[in-house]
Model the fold of this input.
Amino acid sequence: MELSERLKSIKNKLEELRKKDKEMKIFGAGDDQFFGTIGHHYELNPVLSEEEILAVEKKLEIKLPEEYRAFIKELGNGGAGPAWGLFTLEKSYPEDEFLKDYPHFCSMTCDYGDDYANGIRGQKLKDPYYMEVVDGFGGFLKLSDYGHQMTAYMVVGGDQQVGKMWFLDEDGDQLKIAPMMKSGDDWQVSFLDWYEGWLEESFAELEKAK
Done:
């Protein structure tokens, strides 16, 4: 399926999910008075223009992965999505004060490349909850918050793993990471794989709750 067709399918599925989940039962969709959070209500934010995207790419010294770039340009810049929803592009990278000290943070080569990812894959096939303890690293954008210091990030720096999705656990004294996985030979999850996976899991959860 071509990228444009895939984006159209995602847009249709999101609209269908909004209609099916009128009570906002899916996590992150509705407001939570206990935590004081406002849900995404299955709404995407306005898209970004080509000029706005280019400005961020220049600032971070990166080229956004094709799937993500097309999503924020054609569907929406954050909003409805996995966990508490998608961050906007502007919220996905460190603040200016941090970037003054580490201007190449997002463009730097991610220390954990294809061989490293394959090694963790072997561990996760034995234990789905396995995560690797690592030192500090960069070359990524944070895209969503799962709570308890667990976030989803997408590699944007270097020449390996670009566009692939990983979990990052910052809860406690140690950083832990693990690549997101799906079945099959093309086992690593791209941005749209991750987003579509959330849509399908949400449909399944609503069906199960009937």
Remarks:
- Residues 3-208 form one domain.
- DSSP finds six helices and five strands in the chain.
- The radius of gyration is 17 Å.
- The mean pLDDT is 94.
